């Protein structure tokens, strides 16, 4: 379980823009569910983007014109007999708001209008959609989420992630083929946000620790690495000669039960063990941690194991509490790691 308010805090760490004044009220506003929170962020974010100016792109157009613009298309002009109307078919670049990211925003806002959010929020969305009248619609199931950001469109990064959470994390198809939004995000999308939140939390509050999401090289005897999978850590903390590799997990169930015995998920344990042992070859004091988002299960792990000379711990982080408590436990992990 997770408090809806904490989803905002997690997003605010993942995207610094949510710490700005325009979004400050979200830290204390009560939201009934995740869809309400995300729709509020969309309304505020799009409003700010409209004031800045919606992102525009050059789109090639070919159309009959009374005055020359761009390149003349004589063959097409003759074919369409536009000369009779004293027009020429021209091909030119038009600066348009019909960009791919604006299409995603429009599709997301139209989707939210079909969900049971407050009437006031729906009114705000309808008012914003007026500015998207020249933007084409897009199928939410065919969106390519691999956006390329630069200094001209970086203000869209947070908005695209929130659209992704709404469409991928909240949208589901019912038995009759219709679509509806769930009240809370699914595990896969929450896991991605959970990882990014912890990473950015340590980057901001512990500048003395080098915090990355680094890849880990395989400890190979002959250098042959063909077909080996990439080992990508979620969070890696480096302080002096110490390294802590954190694997953040967000599941509905942390423990598995076999023949009445509760155990950790073996794949998760194998993964963190592999990360630690391969990193340890580089030297220094290397440890690992599986940090699960806490569930309402009766049995929760809180263990530290010494495995072949390396500490590997399994902990849980309660996200259904005041954010100050979450911060306290994250601070405790960092302070223990540094030896404070």
TrEMBL record:
GO terms for biological process: DNA restriction-modification system. It holds the Pfam family McrBC. Coiled coil: none annotated. PANTHER family: PROTEIN MCRC (PTHR38733), TYPE IV METHYL-DIRECTED RESTRICTION ENZYME ECOKMCRBC (PTHR38733:SF1). This is 5-methylcytosine-specific restriction enzyme subunit McrC. It comes from Dielma fastidiosa.
């Amino acid at each position: 379980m997770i408090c809806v308010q904490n989803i905002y805090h997690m997003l605010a760490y993942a995207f610094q823009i949510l710490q700005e004044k325009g979004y400050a009220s979200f830290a204390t506003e009560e939201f009934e569910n995740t869809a309400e929170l995300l729709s509020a962020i969309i309304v505020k974010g799009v409003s700010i983007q409209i004031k800045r100016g919606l992102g525009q792109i050059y789109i090639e157009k070919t159309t009959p014109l009374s005055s020359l613009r761009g390149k003349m298309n004589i063959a097409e002009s003759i074919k369409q007999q536009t000369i009779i109307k004293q027009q020429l078919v021209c091909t030119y670049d038009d600066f348009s708001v019909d960009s791919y990211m604006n299409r995603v925003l429009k599709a997301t806002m139209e989707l939210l209008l079909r969900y049971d959010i407050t009437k006031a929020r729906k009114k705000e969305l309808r008012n914003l959609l007026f500015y998207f009248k020249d933007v084409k619609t897009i199928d939410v199931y065919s969106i390519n989420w691999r956006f390329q950001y630069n200094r001209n469109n970086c203000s869209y990064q947070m908005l695209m992630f929130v659209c992704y959470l709404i469409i991928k994390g909240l949208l589901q198809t019912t038995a009759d083929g219709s679509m509806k939004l769930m009240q809370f995000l699914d595990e896969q999308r929450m896991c991605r946000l959970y990882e990014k939140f912890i990473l950015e939390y340590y980057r901001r509050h512990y500048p003395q620790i080098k915090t990355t999401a680094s890849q880990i090289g395989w400890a190979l005897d002959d250098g042959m690495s063909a077909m080996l999978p990439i080992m990508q850590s979620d969070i890696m903390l480096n302080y002096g000669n110490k390294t802590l590799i954190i694997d953040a997990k967000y599941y509905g169930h942390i423990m598995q039960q076999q023949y009445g015995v509760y155990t950790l998920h073996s794949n998760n344990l194998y993964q963190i063990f592999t990360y630690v042992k391969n990193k340890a070859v580089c030297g220094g004091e290397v440890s690992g941690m599986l940090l699960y988002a806490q569930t309402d299960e009766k049995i929760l792990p809180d263990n530290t194991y010494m495995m072949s000379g390396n500490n590997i711990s399994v902990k849980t982080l309660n996200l259904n509490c005041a954010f100050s408590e979450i911060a306290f436990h994250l601070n405790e992990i960092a302070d223990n790691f540094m030896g404070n």
